[in-house]
Write a structure and sequence with these properties.
Elements lengths: L2 H19 L6 H8 L3 H7 L3 H22 L6 H18 L1 H14 L3 H27 L9 H16 L6 H16 L2
Helix pairs in contact: 1-2, 1-4, 1-6, 4-6, 4-7, 5-6, 5-7, 5-9, 6-7, 7-8, 8-9
């Protein structure tokens, strides 16, 4: 197995352990054991636990952005915003572990500044994407001219993040209702 493939395998194992046991259950030796390697080999790929967590967050970021990249042909700001909500609904239904891992890392970030920095970058990229989308909608006169795009982007991500940490099977319906409400707030 090549080095990059092995690294991806180790990241996936760490990710799955966080999804199963929470951040507190993530042990470097457990990742090594599941991978069938020793600790020294694992440290070749990740010299510290923080480096492994950074890789898990990068993996999480990649998973969240994958659908957006697949829908890059969309140019209409309202259609793009609707697609963002549809993508979140899809992820919550098909990949609930994304939200479990994100929530675990968010909780840990309250006590660990290194994780807080990593997550802040991830959420900032999402907010920047939404702010640009919203600004494009304002420029095209699709969204209100007085819309505070930065605050609205923060509000949208906060709503979705909060919903992601709730239990229940009705999340898709809740996201749909939130999307409708957001449209009412921002439409010209």
């Amino acid at each position: 197995m090549g080095g990059e493939q092995r690294r991806k395998e180790l990241i996936a194992l760490a990710y799955s352990i966080i999804a199963e046991k929470g951040f507190e259950g993530l042990r470097v030796r457990d990742v090594a054991s599941r991978a069938g390697i020793n600790g020294a080999t694992l440290h070749y790929y990740f010299p510290t636990k923080e480096a492994m967590v950074q890789a898990v967050v990068e993996h999480l970021t990649e998973q969240f952005s994958t659908l957006r990249e697949q829908n890059s042909e969309l140019t209409d700001p309202l259609a793009m915003l609707r697609q963002e909500f549809a993508d979140v609904t899809y992820r919550m239904e098909k990949f609930p572990e994304l939200f479990i891992v994100a929530a675990e890392l968010e909780l840990r970030s309250l006590r660990d500044s290194s994780i807080a920095v990593i997550l802040k970058e991830m959420y900032q990229a999402w907010q920047d994407y939404l702010a640009a989308l919203l600004q494009n909608g304002v420029t095209q006169k699709v969204f209100r001219s007085d819309l505070d795009v930065q605050t609205t982007a923060i509000a949208i991500t906060t709503l979705i993040r909060g919903l992601g940490s709730q239990l229940g099977s009705e999340k898709g319906d809740q996201i749909s209702r939130i999307a409708t409400q957001v449209e009412q707030w921002i439409m010209a």
